[in-house]
Amino acid sequence: MMSNSTNFRYILSIYTLCSLATLFQLIGCTTKKKDWLITLPGVQATSSPRVADLTGDGVNDIILGGGGPEWAHSDSAVLAFDGQDGHLLWHTPGRNQVFGSATFLDINRDQTPDVIIGGRSAELQAIDGKTGHLIWEFFTATDSMAHKRAGWFNFTNGQLIPDQDADGLDDLLIANGGDATIMDTKSPRPVGRLLLLSTRTGHILHQARVPDGKETYCSPVISKRGSDPAQWLVLFGTGGEAIGGCLYKATLGDLFHDNLANAKLLVTEAKKGIVAPPLVCDLNRDGTPDYLVTTVAARTLAIDGKTDRVLWTFSAPGAETYSMPAVGYFTGNDSIPDFFVSYAVGTYPVYGRGIQFLLDGATGRPVHEYATMGFSYGSPLTLDMNDDGFDDVVLNVNEDDDPHGPRSKVESKLIGFDFRNNSQSRISDALPGANFAITPYIGDLDNDGSVDVLYGSLGATSVNYPGVDVMRPLPAPVTYFARRSLSGLPAKTVRWGAYMGEKGDACFTN
């Protein structure tokens, strides 16, 4: 586990232009000397990175949730890295893993974004972005099981809403639920909740239980309708890996009254729930945002935002998913966005290979089908990787060149899918181990007009692909996290560059 001392020990390797030039010739890009790789002993990261300038140097820095083995206290539950060279800015402790992604807000008004981020065991912290000092913590007990006795569980990703407590700061919509200690699928699960929290103090302003009495692991999403926040729609999901659930829509006004009884049911799954957040975009060009949702049962549904009618459904029998789709213009035949979905073949907790589908956004019809050796909870992203005017997809893939032989070695890499040329190519070097849940970041980290990529893997893993058992205990963890700069690829080529989008709101603007 990492030390609490100011001499935080980690390994930083700077890759030179020569060592990666051959690799990036595959996609017509060169690398820069500012590329780096960090090795984080003792950290088991499953968080997707978010970026913001914490140092005031004009380069976005990186916030990553971390932690050690599940249910264990860690002094590295949240980490901030300098975007320029990868050196550690600060780290904060936690009683369990922080798997969420950061929400940024200048809480203390020092002109630097502060960080709100959550995870297991009711971990939800507001952290001074400049110093790493704790501003507030939702639940303060240090015992990793005290949260369960108090009735608080996992915090998902939050959404900022207009100020509700007259302190001049936006406030936070967030979900809490999911008790991972209950293994029996027939045992009662704690009812999930939606909460509105003061971002200044972390205190509860409003809360309500989900209407079907199920658990929740799904981050809520807001679809803004008009200028009155009370009329804005809140999309939220219930259920889990082996517990049925639903997708609902309510209004923020319902939550202002601490009651979700009037929430409207949009999608029902009898045996498996909805974990991935829904995606908001206009699918029929009527000017009203529509919704796209993937269920654990590997169904993808498009829903009309005006009528709540299902526009189309695509399903992959024998598969499951926890990933959001990538959105972009892939088919090139209309002005309606298309989707790339990634599923795992198998049933929780044992999965084999991954399968992916390119879906026509107008009809839901599969245009292309792909297969990969191993699955990842991480979501695909959208980038025109050869700047030819056609969107492509970047997906994290876990592979083993010799899965049943003496040289078995799992590696994680980023693969680009070029639909126009019907080809695939690597866009990163391989990292040791497997990436279970980190969605990469693709964007302009240092404002030089070119694309940068952030990605990671969990290195200490003895599991093989295919046939991974996600419940199998891992040995002492180590996380690898890397930056790669794609010089010559313009930043404008990024269409959907982070988990839940660059703004973290799961809203795609056509």
Give the number of helices. Answer: 3
Shape assignment: globular
> Would you tell me which CATH topology of the largest domain applies?
Lipocalin
Mean pLDDT: 89
Helix fraction, binned, reads under 10%
Provide the structure class: mainly beta
Radius of gyration: 21 Å
CATH class of the largest domain: Mainly Beta
Q: Judging by the overall fold, what is the CATH architecture of the largest domain?
A: Beta Barrel
Poorly predicted parts = 1-31, 461-467
User: What percent of residues are in strands?
Assistant: 35-45%
What is the domain total for the residues? 3
Biggest sheet descriptor: 6 strands, antiparallel
Distance between the termini: 45 Å
Main location: membrane
Protein name: FAM234A/B beta-propeller domain-containing protein
Pfam family, one: Beta-prop_FAM234A_B
Organism: Fibrella aestuarina BUZ 2
